[in-house]
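Please, structure for the following, as tokens.
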Amino acid sequence: MTQNTHNTENTQPAAAPLTLVTGGTGKTGRRVAARLTERGLPVRTASRGSEIPFVWEEPDTWDAALEGVGAVYLCYYPDLAFPGAAEAVGAFAERAVAQGAHRLVLLSGRGEEGALISESKVRDSGADVTVVRAGWFSQNFNEGFFLEPVLAGELALPTGDSVEAFVDVDDVADVAVAALTDDRHIGRTYELSGPRLLTFAEIAAELSKATGRDITYAPVALEDYRDFLASVGAPADFADLFELINDGRNAHLVHGVEEALGRKPKDFGEFVADAARTGVWQP
């Protein structure tokens, strides 16, 4: 009789790694976490208010969040190009790898020189890294800092006649999840935009049409906008991000959504129609 030496334990599929989603309650993080959960993959969301609190400015909170984690979606707040971001993200990436995380997917900013330093530090961690460089989010108009101006009926912004190809956050999340779950994306950098370049005057027109309200665009000086941010308690550095629009560095389309997912990105008009149906823009 031949002895059966087949080891059944070795034939079982490996358990999916626990994925830590930083910024787990934010625009991209909560979508990434939801998509992973829908696939039946284990997820830990990390934020100040999560069960295991995670705070970028408090490294003592990092280890508990990273316990047992094999992959990380890295989303730094408030912005990867802000002072101190590269040091924090680099230190966190090293800590993550030291604790066993082997895959890091970094949300970066398209055209942000400061973000390149953070990208480099994450790549130097020794992990399998994918960088997702996104332009301005369409959802800034219904979930972010453009919502109040839309409700007030006036987009008073320091953008002149400059154009931007707003990218839908659902596309960003889809690319991030693909990078977290498919080895084909290791080592890649994806630059994401929507399929159209739009001025803010054109955006105001699309919002007006979708909401049935009169929403106008009023260009303002950058310094005046900086003063406005200070008056409402927002970081003045946010004003500098408008230079990414004004100097034209991102005034062209990129194709990371198609490269990563094999489909076209969502158009801003489709986003506006979907958001309008929720009633979010009705005062």
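The chain has eleven helices and ten strands. The first helix runs from residue 27 to 38.
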